[in-house]
Write a structure and sequence with these properties.
The chain is built from 15 helices and five strands. By secondary structure, the protein is an alpha/beta fold. The protein has a five-stranded parallel sheet with strand order 2-3-4-1-5, with helices on both faces. Strand 3, helix 5 and strand 4 form a beta-alpha-beta unit. The radius of gyration is 23 Å and the shape is globular.
């Protein structure tokens, strides 16, 4: 599949990147179409990382991203020698890690015209890490392309932002996501539900369409959170939510964690006997990384649940507007909210939920943050 063919809802940005690839292949690295540093921004689920990888495929392939050559296949597998895909599972990107990355970025391309560096979550750079990166992109190598990904431009230091060409992605609309899911074999009914409640998040839509447990949890969580009438209910609901989301996080990552551990032990010589010297330490380091990744995933799932809750209060505000409700299956609960609160009170509740999301983003303890929110709702 040629570069960008598997993307939906991003025609304008794809056109910009295709022109940039053409300019780069012709040798115009710093032209109106092409530059050495890009900032790809868009809401969660819009495909920031995916489109950055497709751009890399086009830059590193001699046929501008044919999709079938060894170069394109190795980009898809993240094994291309001239692609540095920088992804970390912790809550921040630290300065030592960025300095190591900068060192590798200065290498000459091995088999392609360019060396492409993708930083998946540039919004998680610490201040010192961002300052170190700034020095690198101020004077990039003649054949080094930086692709930074973040939710929005405000999440990036202005000094870095000013040195990037910005590509703003849009969240795919409901109909585009529905068509994609049906094309992937999902039933029309499930595709309609997942496209409607995923709020433009493609990965979330796929998960909801295929995993009944995730759908059931979403339904139970929203019904409980909306029906809280006492402080006691609030604490019980918060405990239940925290336990269920931890369970979800562990289930979603269990298979990947198992495979990673098995491959690492195999690489360190485990074959019915002890690992060679240094192997046990490597396994412990991997387990620590997996724990950090699970923590981050847990926080992401909590944040998604809070967005789902906001969608219910949003529906209560516009109740009566035909074909505009997100949560059609929860119309009774939406009616309760509509009848219980005035519009200004509903807006105040939405603001409280947004504040809780902000607290979690600042590393607040999830259990305490959810308890605090639900007690206020009670």
């Amino acid at each position: 599949m040629r570069a960008f063919e598997n993307l939906i809802g991003q025609k304008n940005i794809i056109n910009i990147f295709q022109k940039a690839i053409a300019a780069a292949q012709s040798g115009n690295l710093n032209s109106q179409e092409m530059t050495s540093t890009w900032l790809v921004v868009g809401p969660p689920g819009s495909g920031r990382t995916t489109i950055a990888l497709e751009f890399a495929k086009g830059l590193l392939c001699s046929e501008s991203g044919c999709g079938i050559c060894e170069s394109c296949l190795s980009v898809q597998a993240n094994t291309h020698p001239d692609l540095e895909f920088f992804r970390r599972d912790g809550l921040t990107l630290k300065v030592d890690e960025i300095r190591e990355l900068i060192g590798r970025a200065s290498w000459e391309p091995a088999i392609s015209k360019f060396r492409v560096i993708i930083i998946e979550d540039a919004d998680r750079l610490t201040e010192s890490a961002a300052n170190a990166l700034l020095k690198a992109i101020e004077e990039p190598g003649s054949r080094t392309i930086w692709l930074l990904c973040a939710p929005s431009t405000v999440d990036i230091l202005p000094t870095i932002r000013s040195r990037c060409r910005i590509a703003v992605l849009q969240a795919p609309n409901q109909e585009e996501i529905k068509k994609m899911l049906i094309a992937e074999g999902v039933s029309a009914e499930s595709a309609d539900f997942a496209a409607r409640v995923s709020l433009g998040h493609i990965g979330r839509a796929r998960l909801l369409a295929r995993d009944k447990d995730i759908r059931d949890f979403r339904n139970s969580f929203l019904k409980q959170a909306i029906s809280i009438n006492s402080v006691s209910d609030a604490y019980k609901c918060a405990t239940w939510i925290n336990e269920k989301i931890k369970e979800q996080s562990e289930n979603l990552s269990a298979e990947q964690n198992k495979i990673e551990i098995e491959k690492l032990k195999e690489a360190w010589g485990e074959n019915g006997r002890k690992l060679v010297s240094g192997g046990a330490k490597a396994v412990k380091e991997l387990e620590a990384m997996q724990k950090a990744r699970n923590t981050r995933l847990t926080r992401a799932l909590i944040d998604q649940s809070l967005l789902d809750l906001i969608s219910c209060y949003r529906d209560a505000l516009i109740l009566g507007v035909e074909n505009q409700l997100i949560n059609l299956e929860l119309k009774n609960e939406i009616n309760k909210i509509h009848n219980k609160f005035q519009p200004n009170e509903i807006l105040g509740i939405i603001d409280q939920i947004m504040q809780t999301r902000d607290f979690l983003n600042r590393n607040a303890a999830p259990q305490l943050a959810i308890e605090n929110l639900l007690v206020k709702l009670a």
